[in-house]
Amino acid sequence: MAQWDRLGQLPAAFKQQLLELYDRDSLPMDVRHYLAVWIENQEWLRAARDHDLAVVLLQVLLENLDIQHSRFVQEESFLLQHNIRRYKQNFQRYLDEPCDLARTILWFLEKENEILMSADLTEQVQFLQVEPEIMETSSKQDLERKMAGLRNEMQCMEHTMICLEEQQDEFDFKYQTHKMEAVGDEAVKNDQIKVLQGLVNRLDECRKSTLSDLNKLLDRTEDLVDILVKKELVEWQRRQQKTCIGAPDDVCLDQLEKWFTCVAVCLFQVREFLSKLEELVGKVSYENDPVKAQKPALQRRADTVLKDLLKSSFVVETQPSMPQGKGPLVLRTNVQFSVKTRLLVKFPELNHSMKVVVSMERETPHIKGYRRFNVLGTITKALNMVESQSGGMVADFRHLNLKEQKSGGSGKGVSDIPLSVTEELHVICFDTVFELKGLSVGLQASSLPVVIISNSSQQQSAWASILWFNMLSQDTKDLMFFANSPAATWPQFGEMLSWQFLSATKRGLNDAQLEMIAHRLFGNQMNYDTCTVAWSKFSKENTPDTFWVWFDGILVMVKTFLEDLWREGLIMGFVSKGKEKSLLKKKQSGTFLLRFSESVIGGITFSWVETTGAGQLNVKTVQPFTKDDLIQIPFHEIIRNFQIFEPGNIPENPLLYLYPNIPKDKAFGKYYSEKSGGTVNNCVSKYFFCSKTLEHRPPMSSDVAQGEGLEPMNGLCGESAEQNGNLHLLDSQMEPYHLDPMLSDSVPHEDLLLCLNNPNLLDDSSQINILFNVGPEFSFPDLDCLPP
C-alpha cells in the first residue's frame, strides 16, 4: 500500500498530526494528494545532492501540475483550478535552487514515515507487552518530533521577521514621505498622523509578538539542550563505558551529531534574528521600544544555551588503546596508542580549522608516589571530515605515547593512601576552540580514566582495574576511586563476567554457568542478587591466584585454543565437581562433559560416567590440560583419540556422548583432522603410561544425595594436581575418595596404561611433553614410559 494511502487510514489523533504537518505552503496537501504516486516513486535523496536530477524532477512536477489543472478545467472545479495555478507559481521559485525543493519534499516524506511508525508503535503497545527496546525507540521518535517542531518554529520565525521588516519599511516610507510633504490643511495632516500612529502601534505589537515568540523558541531550545546534554549524551557515555569492558551496546554518534547540529543551527539562527532586530531598531525606534528593553536579556540567554551545547558537543569517540593491549584504557609507557575525538556540532565551514591539542590531566591527586606523565608524539591535529567514515568532524590521533616524569618531592598535603600502580587512574585531555559567526568558545574533552603500566606483566591487573571502575562508576573524573572502592552487586558482577566471554568469543555465560561462579564466591544462597563482591576479593587479595587471575586464565585459554568449541556450546565450562557428578550419574555410560579447572589456572578437563560390572556408576576425570598441552595438540583431537589401556582388555575410548546425549563424532567431527591418527601441529601425540596404584571415586547409586548440588568454595580449591612434571594423586579435600569395592587386592598392583592412539606420531626418540593421565581416580607415582 502506498504511504499516502496508509496515512489516510490512520486514527484521528495521527491524522491531526498529518494536518499539522501540512499546515504550510512548502508542500501543499493538495499537491501531495493528487501527485502521491509520482512523489513517492522519485529519488529525492539523490536529487537533494544532484542538481541535474533536481532540475528534471522540478520540471516534471510543474508538468504534472499543468495536467492536474487541465483536469480540473474539464471538471469545472474552479477552486481547485485556482489552487493548482497558485501552487505552480510558488514552486517556480525553486527554479534557481531545485535541490531545495528536493530536500523539502524529502523532509515531508520522512515526517510522514515517522507518523506511521508512531501509529504502528501505539498499536503494538495496545496489544503486546512493550519491550524496553520499543520504549527506547519511542523516546527517540519523540525527540525527533520535537526536533521537527523546532525546525518548523524556526521557519515560522523567519517568516515573522520578514513580515516585521516589511511593516517597518511601510511605516518608515510613509513617515519619511509625511516629513517631506508640506501639508497645509490641518485636517489632512491630522489624518496622516493618525495613520502613522496606527502603523507605529501595529509595529509595536508586532515587535512584542516577535520577542514573545523568540522567548518561546528559546524555551523549546533549552528543553532540547537539556535532553541532549543531560540524558542522551549521558546515556551514550555510559554505553561507551560498558562497551569498553565488553558490553554489546551501540555507541554510534551519528544520530547524536544530527540532533546536536540541528539545535546548534537553530540557535545560530536565533542570534541572527536578534541581530536583525537590533538592525531594525537602529532604523526605527520610539519611546518604550520593547526591543531595546528585552533584546539584551534574550541575547545573553541565547549565547548561554548555545555555549552549553557546544561545550558538551566535544567528546572522545574512541577511547585510548594500544594495538596489542588486553583492552582499551590500559596504556604502557613508550608504547604507541591511538585515540579519536569528535565534535558533534557539524559545520562544514569549520573543516580543518579547529586544532585539537592533547595533554595529561592538569590536576593530579595529592598522593604519595602518584606518577605523572607527558604525552609525546603528534599531539596537535585539526578536526576534519576526512578521517571519519560517516563524515563526522574528528581528530584521529594514532601516534601518541607516554613518558613518565622524573619524580620530585612529595610536597605539602600529600596523602599516604596506598595505591598500587594499577590502581592509579589518569585522564588524557583534549582542548580546542570553536569560532564561528562572531562566537568563540573554548572546548575541552577528556578520556575515561586510564591505567598506565610500564611492564606487560602488569596488564592483567590493570585490566581488572578498568573492568571494576567502568562497571561501578559513572564519575569519569574520580581519580581517587580505588582509595575507597565500592563493592559490586552480583547482578553487576555476573553481567560484567559474561561480557568478557561475549566480547572475546561472541558467546557469553548462561545462567547455569553464572550460578556456579556465584556459588564459588558466596556458597549456597537462596538468592544471589543481594550478594556483593569486594574489590579486594576480585583482584587485590594477597595471594598470587585471585578470582580474576583464575577467571582470566580461563578466558585466555578459551580465546586462544577453544573459541570454536565454546561458541558452539560444546564446553559446559563453569560447573562444580558436585554438580558434574549429579548431571553425569543420570546419563548413559560413556557420557562426558567438559569443564574448567577450579584450581589449575587456565586448565580444562573432562569427566565421564561408566558402568561397573555390578551395574553401578563411576565418574572418572582426567587431570586438567593447560596451554602447554593445547599448544601441541588441539583439544578436539585429545577427545577424539583418548583411550584407556588395561591388561587383558581391548583399548577403548570411554568418551562416547557429549552431555546430554550428543554422539561425540557428531559434536566434534567437523573439527577433526582429515585422517585419524594424522599429524596434529607436527607434535607427538601417542604416549603410554603405567601406574602401580589405582584409586577412584565411590560408585554412585540412584539414592546418593551427597554432592548433587553446587559445592561452596571459598578459595581456589578443587583439583590440585601438581604441575611439576611428576604425577600425583589429585588432592581430594573437597570430596573423599575410597577404593572401589569391586577391585580385588591384586588390582592396584597391576599396570594401567593410557594413551592417545596415534601410532604414526611416535618414534623412538620422541620426547614426552604432555601427560594424559586419569585422576583423581588414578595416580602415577614412579612412572615409567613404556615403548610402543
Written overview of the protein:
- Helix content is 45%, strand content 13%.
- It is α+β, with helices and mostly antiparallel strands and 788 residues long.
- The strands form seven sheets. Strands 15-14-13-17-18 form a five-stranded mixed sheet.
- Helix 11 packs antiparallel against helix 12.
- The longest helix has 59 residues, at 186-244.
- 32% of the residues are buried.
- Residues 676-788 have low confidence and may be disordered.
Distance between the termini: 77 Å
Q: Quick one: overall form?
A: elongated
Residues in β-strands, percent: 5-15%
Main pleated sheet: 5 strands, mixed
DSSP strand count:
21
Main location: cytoplasm
Protein name: Signal transducer and activator of transcription
Domain SH2: 566-672
Organism: Scophthalmus maximus (Turbot)
Summarize this structure as a short list of keywords or feature phrases:
five-stranded mixed β-sheet; alpha+beta; 788 residues; 45% helix; 21 strands; 21 helices; disordered C terminus; elongated; four-stranded antiparallel β-sheet
